[in-house]
Design a protein that fits this description.
Length: about 100
Amino acid sequence: MALVLPGFAGCGRVRSANDGSFAFDTLVPGGYEEASTRRAPHLHLQISGRFDRLVTQLFLPGRRDNARDPWFRAALDARLLIPTVRADGADRLVLEWTAVLRRG
Ligand SMILES: [Fe+2]
């Protein structure tokens, strides 16, 4: 049986601040099987600007299974899909990642 927090929908939506920054809290994801391959833990993101939209997946830093993930391996530069660890506590992992929408 999966552990689910009360009120956790598995997805959410957040509006950025005027400087483009945004933040959200979520659970650390787990991996899963997909088409006979094992997906490394990742987060799906869709960022919508006034003109541009970015759909991507972010992977957890320091995980060896990232290198076996087919989506991670297909990236032109997979390093861009790994956020930077800003804090790593006993019950909280804080990650930072920068996205640029070319036309906003
Ligand atoms: Fe996924």
